[in-house]
What does this fold into?
Amino acid sequence: MNQIKDSRELRERIIEAGYQAVEHLIEVAKERIVDGDDGLTADKLKNAAATKKLAIFDAFEILKRIESENDNINETVTETKDTIQGFAERRSRT
It folds into this structure.
């Protein structure tokens, strides 16, 4: 039981770090590509746009995984509560 609790706490910490990573990716996506008259070449502009696109897609991918892990944690908690009851209690009809 203690190992399950430790695993859950680690997952929750990883999820929190994931949310922070998403916030950083949002900041990257919001930054201006061109600031004034930098004289950027077409290749540099293309690379900057690709970087922003990657930041946005990565943020969505992280959020999707966070939601999946939250669901897994919630299922584990429900299963743990169910196992505390005896067989008869789980199978009885209310």
User: Anything to note?
Assistant: The chain has one domain: 2-78.
